[in-house]
Structure prediction request, 567 residues.
Amino acid sequence: MTTARALAAQVNAGASAAAAVEQSLARAQGDTLNAIIRVHADHARAQAASVDARVRAGERLPLAGVPLVIKDNLLLAGAESSACSRILAGFRSPYTATAVARLESAGAVVVATANMDEFAMGSSNETSCHGPVKHPKDPTRIPGGSSGGSAAAVAAGIAPLALGTDTGGSIRQPASLCGVVGMKPSYGRVSRYGAIAFGSSLDQIGPFAADVADAALALAVMAGHDGNDSTSAQRPVDSAELPADPLAALRGARIGYVAAHEAGLAEDVRARLELAKRRLVEAGATLVPVTLPHERYAVAVYYVIATGEAASNLARFDGVRYGHRAEGAKDLGEVYARSRVEGFGPEVQRRIMLGTYVLSTGYYDAYYKKAQQVRRRICDDFAGAFAACDAILGPVSPTTAFKAGEKLSDPLQMYLSDIFTIAANLAGVPAVSVPFGADRNGLPIGLQLQAPLWADGRMFALAAGIEALGR
Amino acid sequence: MAITEKDVRHLAKLASLGLDDAGVARMARELEAIVGYVNQLSEVDTTGVEPVANVSGLANVTRPDAAGPMLAIDAVLANAPARNQNAILVPKVVER
Prediction:
């Protein structure tokens, strides 16, 4: 498939954005994976025409005519966004998310909305009110989650770029399982304005792409301060430029690894990680053993902090101002209670209840405050590790794509699929999943690179080197 | 520590979630398993550790106190389940 960079170069040189967008629209309409839940044909045609007009008028746009798929928790003015929840059925946004608006200003064209786990709560894309997404290589398997539709859309060639959100691995895990690049930026690098909130101290919007350079380009376009998100950073944005020779960045680089990560990995995942480490040394990098002693508590910390924040964020869905309202409620309290129990699916209800528990009187100190303190320990672990290395290489997911239904009935097992991805969200550091081969069944394996806060650009340069080593 | 159905009913009230009896029983089982897992946090010595609320070093972000553009009222109210002109309709709140 043509990269976003190559496509933009063609359109900037006079090729038709409208034609590129028609091709992507046709693929989105022909989607057989349930990755796409909504096609924005009218919007896309108007936006493509505007890109063609801007190029004819002499503008050169970094993403000219590049089709873009967005996750259903990102807002596009006038279009439906529902976070794949019945409680937001029919909701039409009065405004566009900053990240989406910036990509469109740079010439990208939103063609469709991707399926996802309801409110981004899930690791298999099976909790969506629109039904599960199928893995692009094996329809009996899951694509990962929660941004499963976005990952599958790029893997299936529906669009070269997609957006997801990552609260505990929701971009990196499906990217790994589907064999594409997926990146979670430093916390605060990308504005969250127009992203339907899940865990506000953890959520980041990030790109899916077919290669590292496209992901770096998308991030450079959407990153930067936004007055509509007070947590977006007022720091200069890294250039999207990567070294012309991807292996050059690896020479002399100090790549950390955590020996404890190897326990519990599927055999083929462990073998690919070992291969990557050998090839890194051959390429001139130095491997540095590091430890993250409190990483083993990350899942427990996460399921206190993320659910506490989710219970607070999702309190706004009450059947009053927008979304689903229960019929025939006799008073306002009943509108709230019945609209919410009818509108939220089982996993979302579970997390609201858990979050309410950890924030309730008598339990706050034992759970929420305790989790915030262990979170500090995890942040300190990363600071210690990054004093000795430039980035940490490790697994994304302990296994390749698992079978549909395999973990759905056991919430705790599902939560543990994110064991390697959650710590980056807790520490706020950037992390990326890079494809690195496949298992014996041909299912993709991704490797994770985590870097210090604000080292997003340096991380991409190293990730491009690892991508080259994996080819 | 056991999470009883009575606890779940109290939480459901706090969370405005109208669970039925089957939902309460299922939730008590599931929460118990997850809270059991989360309890491992008590192993970690956190004496004197400052809790983290923000990881990117921000404090007291403010903006100028100036009027700015706002969303179009019609576009916003178009999403209301029940509407009367520029107001959202709900069932009565106070019983007379």
